[in-house]
From TrEMBL:
The lineage of its organism: unclassified sequences, metagenomes, ecological metagenomes. It comes from freshwater metagenome. The keyword Ribosomal protein does not apply. Keywords: Transferase. Residues 1-153 form the Formiminotransferase N-terminal subdomain domain. Residues 154-256 form the Formiminotransferase C-terminal subdomain domain. PANTHER family: FORMIMINOTRANSFERASE N-TERMINAL SUBDOMAIN-CONTAINING PROTEIN, FORMIMINOTRANSFERASE-CYCLODEAMINASE. Its EC number is 2.1.2.5. The keyword Transferase applies. GO terms for molecular function: folic acid binding; glutamate formimidoyltransferase activity. This is glutamate formimidoyltransferase.
Amino acid sequence: MIESVINISEGRRTDLIDEIGAAAGADLLDVHSCVHHNRSVLTVVGESAPKAIARRTLDVLDIAMHDGAHPRIGVLDVVPFISLEGSSERDAIDARNAFARWAAEALALPCFLYGPERTLPEVRRGAFTTLAPDHGPQEPHPTAGAVAVGQRAALVAYNLWLAEPDIDLAKQIARTIRSSSVRALGLEVGDQVQVSMNLIDPTSTRPDQIWDRVESMALIKRAELVGLLPDSVLGRIPPDRWAQLDLGTERTIEWRLTERERRLAEG
């Protein structure tokens, strides 16, 4: 099975977020929204759900109307494909390539690929300057911008909100913890600051470990899991820390897949 963790540039208008998510039907596993980032993360499975979400996103959102703390290149900003149990990395790459070709042809959307070729940060830095789209028009879509379409392993998107709203400290912490397994940014979100992270290898650098490292440099107000995490990662973390870390069994990919199967069986 293939999972996709779709990032759209809308986190405030709940009616539109619900409308976009509903396009995926039973294949929607999770929705996480942030008003400050003005961004939502929709976790889906299968290869039809990303297309349905893409169509609806382009129907109702306009990148010219967007503002938010998080970097973005389009309303349908990032569409990564991840292989789950029973599928391979090659399957995810094939799904990525098929989606990018479809989005370019059906939606006239410029598509930048990431995965084996380059990283997502490289796409963000180079889109339309040092990098040309791999598929689709060579100029941004007038209302949708562009999309980064990727293949990657399962990661954990994780935010730690600092007790003191010191953006310089948040940026310094992000620089300190950044590594081959941790991507990090210090961001100002409203009147607060956070260290926003992608834990690229969450089995070697887990949420509890990154909490402890950040806490050695600053007082943490709260943690925030964005989307879902693999059960294999949760199982390595002491259960008595789950609440502190904003984790739980129901926040795993596997739990949501089981719930999906139950709902489908019930009709």
